Structures are given as C-alpha cells and as structure tokens.
Amino acid sequence: MNWLALYVTCLLLVAAPAAAQSISEKLGVNSFLGVSPSTQDFVNEVAMNEMLETELSKLAEERGGAKTKQFAAKMLREHSGISSQLKSLVRSGQVKVIFPATLDDARQAKLDTLKSMSGVGFDKAFEDLQVSIHNDTVSLFERYGGGGSHPDLKLFAFKYLPSLIEHWRLARDLKQ
C-alpha cells in the first residue's frame, strides 16, 4: 500500500466513530483491510442491502427475462427471512442500534437507474448489481461473524453466510 493510501485510510479510521455510519465502512476501506464493521454499521449495511435486494427483485419480476425473474423470486423468498430475523433482533432490544428506514443515496441511485431500464439492458444491469451486492454482503457477514462485538449478531452472520455465498454463486451463474 502506498503512503497516500495509508494516510487516507488512517484519516478515515480516526473520523469514523463520529458518523452514524462510519466513512471507512461506507467507502469500503474496512472491507479492503478486512476490518470488522461496528454493530451499527453492520445493521445499517445489512438492512439497506436487504431493502435494495427486495426492491430490485420486485422490479426484476416485472421487467426481467425468464432467468432474471426466476432468480428474483428466489431472492425475494430467501432474503425475507434474513430481513425478518435482523428486524426481530433489533426490535426485541437484543441489539441496541438504530434500524435504517430508507435506502441511502447511493443505493437509491442504483435502484432508480434500474427503474429506468428494460429488456436486455435491465437484465445485464440487474445481474451486475446482484453480483456486486452479494460480494459486498458476503464480505460484511464474514467480517462481522469473525470479529463483530455483538454475540447474537455474530450468530446471525454465521447462520446466513452459507445462503449468501450460494446467492453470490447463483448471481455469478446468472451472468453466463
């Protein structure tokens, strides 16, 4: 790693605790360095990825080709369990964090872009986004499961990691 990258990384890590969602997690620095996210960052990222996954899959069921629709239906079924479990942990008070209610600007922009597409272009963009989302989500679950601070969320991460790895594989296969 060059000195400039190291310097920027250090600045981001120092500034991170001041933000509701740390800049280092949001920018992917933690993922790059293999650093476990904070509990709040983990919940934020999982919840927003789940919201995005749900909205994208609903859109794909309307606009996608046959393979895309089949994949989307599977994602809707399986991600609803992940979302429900996470919401249950937070609502029960077992995990004391703020649960995000809406997508962040970056995820909303991705969704809006796909809303403007149809046909083969939609399928390609959907497939690319699915690979990216699942890649990021697998990394997030691996990092939190391995080094997170909340035992219930660590169990949650380990419970769903195999399914997410399978989703990532299916998303990559969808592109072929």
Give an account of the 3D structure.
The protein contains eight helices and no strands. It is mainly alpha-helical and 176 residues long. It has two domains: 1-35, no CATH class; 36-174, Ferritin (Up-down Bundle), CATH 1.20.1260.10. Helix 4 (39-63) runs parallel beside helix 6.
Major sheet size, sense and barrel closure: none
Under CATH, the homologous superfamily of the largest domain reads Ferritin, core subunit, four-helix bundle
The separation of the N and C termini measures 34 Å
Could you give the count of β-strands? 0
- Label the structural class: mainly alpha
Residue-averaged pLDDT: 86
CATH second-level architecture of the largest domain: Up-down Bundle
Structurally, the number of domains stands at: 2
What's the CATH class label of the largest domain? Mainly Alpha
Rg over CA atoms: 17 Å
Strand proportion, as a percent range, falls in: under 5%
Q: What is the helix fraction of residues, given as a range?
A: over 70%
Unreliable stretches (pLDDT < 50, length at least 5) are: 3-19
Q: Count the DSSP helices.
A: 8
Morphology: globular
Helices and strands, in order, run as: HHHHHHHH
